[in-house]
Amino acid sequence: MGQRIISSRQREILALIETEGVQYIEELARRYDLTTQTIRRDINALCDLGHARRFHGGVDLPVEGSNISLNARAQLNRRAKRLIAKRVAADIGTDATVFLGIGSTVRFVAEALRDHQGLTVITNNIHVALSLCDAPSVEVHLTGGLLRHDDRDVVGTDVIRFVEKFYATYAIVGAGALSPLNGLMDFSYSEAQITNALLENSQTQILAADVSKWTRNAAVRVAPFSKLTRFYTDRLPGDAAATNALAESSLDVVTCSEDMT
Asked: Residue 1: what pLDDT?
């Protein structure tokens, strides 16, 4: 059921919920010049798949303070995530050892790394492993741990113990949310622990996250921006607090656009 293809309009509605918050049926109907009945069908389909939560007159994220499913996240800001992934991959050298963490943007990075030569990849992300399993020049180490069905990853102390056996050239991680005050944030303590283990056991720490992460709220602190080497994003928010926080951290920020190769 969760693998059902959603329409381009439904993807756009998901992106609106993700970046702007609550959406109302009447406003969506005016935006798309459609009847409210058509918009309700779109919303019902998204809710039936667990991507959204309906309420009287509108639609919101499934549960306040929790992340939406990986399949839903992969649909959101898809073009931006692919641009970010392409640029990250272009900056990864051959014969490197790479940690690839949790999240939909990291999944796109894995796809962009398929043709790299001599890579060793360590991951707890099932989608990453599947993307690279038939890439002949990439050696993949998949951690053990507790499988999370909706997120298609594994978590737990087994993951951390496995990660600590390596010292990677790069750690590439995502974030549930970004905060000017707290840096990287996530929805789960177990995710935060694993991301920290990847950062601590690597030479170059890379964050890959699109601009929508600045509008999300997550409760678990992961790491300050000062613990990162580079931040790849599609664009920066027009928020002075975020801009100042990044500048004060001395983080190398790379914005990715269509004309970058």
From this structure: 36
